[in-house]
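hey so i finally got around to running both of the ones u sent me last week. sorry it took forever, my laptop kept dying halfway thru and i had to restart like 3 times lol. anyway pasting them below in the order u listed, first the sequence line then the structure token line for each. didnt double check formatting much so if smth looks off just lmk and ill redo it

first one:
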Amino acid sequence: MRNVLLVDDDPSIIPLVELCLNKLDVGVLQTDGASGALAMARTNDIGMVLLDLALGDEDGLEILPRLREDPSFAGVPIVAFTAHDSRRQEALQCGVDDFVRRPFSAADLRALVEDYLSR
């Protein structure tokens, strides 16, 4: 089973993402920062990452290079997953593969995840 890694410091978002993706054959893993993401990638099959841009003490775009440089994330799509629509252009310029604005629709998130995992 492939996994979607949710890098977000808000644990209440996990059940929503799991509910949206329950029709897909994917697991949803969660961590709240770069260190946890790197550890998860070394022990799990990560098919894509949903990266919040506001992570409490960390900024998602600041940890993006650490994720991109790690061999565990080679070829893994990283999607900005945030309520901060004003950062869309910045996120895309920093190298995320896509951008999902929260709140999100279940159908849109499911379609996006299915598209990336089928590549």
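and the second one:
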Amino acid sequence: MMATQNDRLVNVRDAAEAYGCSVATVWRRAADGTIPKPLKIGSMTRWSEAEIRSHIEAAKLDREAA
């Protein structure tokens, strides 16, 4: 099965770039449940790019609703 752009898995640096924060902040926010938790695949830790995008879009909608 070939991964599409929407379901690509990204590392912590890419997740931090998407959220516009530091790597340490990504780890903190994942631990406290503020952002989606990563997937563990063997020794790798990856985030779903689609989940990150959805999370950011939901935050935008929440902001506009407030």
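quick thing i noticed on the 2nd:
The mean pLDDT is 92.
anyway thats it, ttyl
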